[in-house]
Design goal:
With 238 residues, the chain is an alpha/beta fold. An eight-stranded mixed β-sheet has the order 1-2-4-3-5-6-7-8, with helices on both faces. The longest helix is centred in the middle third of the chain and has 17 residues. It has a single domain, classed as Rossmann fold (3-Layer(aba) Sandwich), CATH 3.40.50. A hairpin with a 2-residue loop joins β1 and β2.
Amino acid sequence: MMKAYVNGIELSYHIYGSGEPLVLLHGNGQSHGSLKRQIDFFRKNYQVITVDSRGHGKSELGFRPLDFQIMALDILCLLDFLKINKYRVIGYSDGGIIALEMAIYQPKRQKQMVVIGTNYDASQIKWWANIFTFIVYLVSILLTPFSFFFRRIRAQMRLMIFHPHIKEEDLARISAPMLAVMGEYDVISKADVQKMVNLVQRGEMVVIHNGTHFLIRQKPRELHKIITSFFDKDVTQI
């Protein structure tokens, strides 16, 4: 584990393998360890950079409200620290939202992006998936005064319920080729993902048969095959 002081907090990260830089970003409430299957697979051909997002894992929460813009800036600042100019990225769930924000901030820096089970507006999460999150959020509000642990949980749940709100005109600025992967039974709808894919300049989508939101663990082999095929395409800028 390595630490870097970036954007006002201490960020925890790991680097595996060698080759072209590939950033892996985990989902809400997780840490880089949840992407172990992806790390083990992609480290054979890439320099894999995994990060515990702000307020997750071993990274600090800081004192600013948690949102995806600041989390994206954290990762871009880390890449500056590591002297990495161009990068590919795979973002799972909330990690995909961070990848979108990174591409909006610095469109030319991103070579290719894969987002898995990712929405661009908070309203796109299906209602039944939000009920549990809201209950945990309310409990964490009550327990925050008694424990720093619950302050982190509250920040994570608040992020999931009230964010993101990425504007459609901002999505249109994303110029790197983007692949959106989702499960057939995901917590977001196919129509919303298709809309996102249509809004970016070069987007495509794949729906995995019988897949859920948890594709990174449920169907890793199929997922890796789809991503590898996407990465193998020519990425020459149009």
